[in-house]
Each structure stands twice: as structure tokens, then as C-alpha cells.
Amino acid sequence: MIQAFIFDLDGVITDTAKFHFIAWQKLAQRLGFDIDHEFNEKLKGVGRMDSLNLILQHGGISLTEAEKENEAARKNDEYVELIADMNASDLLPGAREALEAIHAAGLKTGLASASKNAPAILARLGISDLFDTVVDARFVINGKPDPEIFLKGAAQLNLSVTECIGIEDAVAGLQSIKDAGMYAIGIGDPAVLTLADTVIDGLHQFDLKHYI
Ligand code: G6P
Ligand code: MG
């Protein structure tokens, strides 16, 4: 019996990809090259240092570990400045309603995000109190596609994986949910999200009674 839903943040609850793109583009330009929106798709759900490594590889640049740390910190400072103006209007359609419907049915909610900025973003969106547990990149050793983050979410809710449903927009995130042994709801294009058990366009299409 389903007891909880564990959500990804970026691309499911809110769209931060556009802010990550601006900050990564600035970094690329500092180093003398450009990234485009198509390349940005590859960074969705990918942690900060892994993203930086992909970008450097794309630009054919190699940096020392210290330089990488420095560039990643600078990118994050820029990103933090961009998200400072986020508010409830940045919630994707249906996100708040889905979280509220789950709680109204007496079920639990969790967040499993690769972003270390996840708690700050939840606060800006005004939905921190709609999550019973939050697992972000600071608390896991292996990022998505490893199942660790969703396994930890279920454990923190004191539930087994078969009692939880994971919701994700990225292929790496769906891999993480499926390898954790959970039912997976994909958000996006069914032709791309083939790992998902079901795919919807967005949380505005989330209908709790389909899953419980
Ligand atoms: C999410 C985003 C990625 C981002 C990652 C780390 O998964 O989709 O684009 O790189 O979080 O975010 P952070 O805020 O910790 O740099
Ligand atoms: Mg995502």
C-alpha cells in the first residue's frame, strides 16, 4: 500500500534549469567558450562537480582540482544570487496542489534533490512545511543515478521502498528510483522517459487516486 511520494525538485516542483544555465554559461564564457540549451539538457539532475566536469570536457579545458573548486564556488555564488528572487510564483503548475492532496489523504511527502540549495529553494517557494523529509546532495555519497538518495528518503520516512512512489523528470533520476525498487512517475516526454512506470506532462496532471 502506497504511503508516500518522494519528489525530485528541479523540473518537477520548480524550474531552476534556466538559472543553472545562466550561471554555467557565465563560467564557460570566462573560460572562453559557450554552452547552448541543448548541452544544458545534459546537466539536468547532474550534481555540481559532475556538471562542471562535463562543461570543461565540452570546452576542451582542463583545470586543477583547486581551480575547479574555485570555479564551482563562483558559479554557485552566481546561482544563489539568481534564485534569491524566487517566490511562490515559481512553483510549477499543480505542485502545491499535489503536495497538499497527498497530506490531505494522510500520506507522506519527501524530497530527493541533487541540489545542495534545495532547502533554500523550498523556503523561497514557501513549501518547506509541505515536506515530511528532505534528502539533498549534502547527505548522500553517491548522486543520481545511484539509488542512494531515494533509499534514504524512504528510510527517513520509516517506510519500505514498495510503499513509496518516486517522481522525476530526468533519466538519471528515474534510474535512481527504479534501482531503489520504487514505482516511478516520469514528468516529461514518454519517448525519453522509458524507465518510468507512467509518464505525465507535469504535476497539474497528478491524480492521487490513480496511485493509491
Ligand atoms: C539539480 C540540477 C542540476 C544541478 C544539481 C546540483 O540536480 O538539475 O542542474 O547541477 O541540482 O545543484 P547545486 O544547487 O547543488 O549546485
Ligand atoms: Mg529534475
From TrEMBL:
Keyword Metal-binding among record annotations: yes
Cofactor stoichiometry and binding remark: Binds 2 magnesium ions per subunit.
Pfam family, one: Hydrolase
Domain of life, per lineage: Bacteria
Binding site for substrate: 8-10, 24, 43-48, 51, 75, 113-117, 144
Catalytic activity line of the entry: beta-D-glucose 1-phosphate = beta-D-glucose 6-phosphate
GO molecular function, one term: magnesium ion binding
InterPro entries in the cross-refs: B-phosphoglucomutase_hydrolase, Beta-PGM, Beta-PGM-like, HAD-like_sf, HAD-SF_hydro_IA, HAD_sf, PGP-like_dom2
EC number: 5.4.2.6
Site residues (Important for catalytic activity and assists the phosphoryl transfer reaction to Asp8 by balancing charge and orienting the reacting groups), renumbered to this chain: S113, K144
Residues noted as binding Mg(2+) in the record, renumbered to the chain: D8, D10, E168, D169
CC cofactor: Mg(2+)
A single GO BP: carbohydrate metabolic process
Active site: D8, D10
Record-stated family: Belongs to the HAD-like hydrolase superfamily. CbbY/CbbZ/Gph/YieH family.
Protein name in UniProt: Beta-phosphoglucomutase
